[in-house]
Task: inverse folding
């Protein structure tokens, strides 16, 4: 019973730390995207924001959220998880723009879908690999 409680506390702590990092990384991503979409194609702007957020996200995920050392193994897994997440976000971005959402508001729908998916993928990388 005590082990189950410890596991639950650990998972809750990870979710809280993931949320804190998520807010920071989302702000970086959206800030870069918002500025660049004013002067270039939204897909390129989205990608530039994603790359900026990705770099910060990897190190904070490893050291702060999951309390692991950065390594080739978890770095590769993190990269694969984020390729999946990036492709999901690009599909959602273009879908939301296609249905008429503004370029400024489309990220709201994107993040609502992709953040939970990303948490599960990244948690798997740092816990199972």
Result:
């Amino acid at each position: 019973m005590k082990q189950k409680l410890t596991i639950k506390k650990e998972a809750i702590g990870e979710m809280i730390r993931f949320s804190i990092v998520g807010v920071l990384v989302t702000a970086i991503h959206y800030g870069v995207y918002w500025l660049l979409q004013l002067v270039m194609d939204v897909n390129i702007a989205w990608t530039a924001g994603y790359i900026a957020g990705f770099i910060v996200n990897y190190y904070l995920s490893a050291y702060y959220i999951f309390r692991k050392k950065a390594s080739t193994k978890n770095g590769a897994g993190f990269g694969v998880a984020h390729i999946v997440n990036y492709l999901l976000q690009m599909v959602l971005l273009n879908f939301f723009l296609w249905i008429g959402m503004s370029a400024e508001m489309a990220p709201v729908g994107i993040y609502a879908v992709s953040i939970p998916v990303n948490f599960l993928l990244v948690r798997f990388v740092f816990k199972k690999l």
In short: The two ends are 26 Å apart (CA to CA). The chain has a mean pLDDT of 91. The chain is about 85% helix and 0% strand.
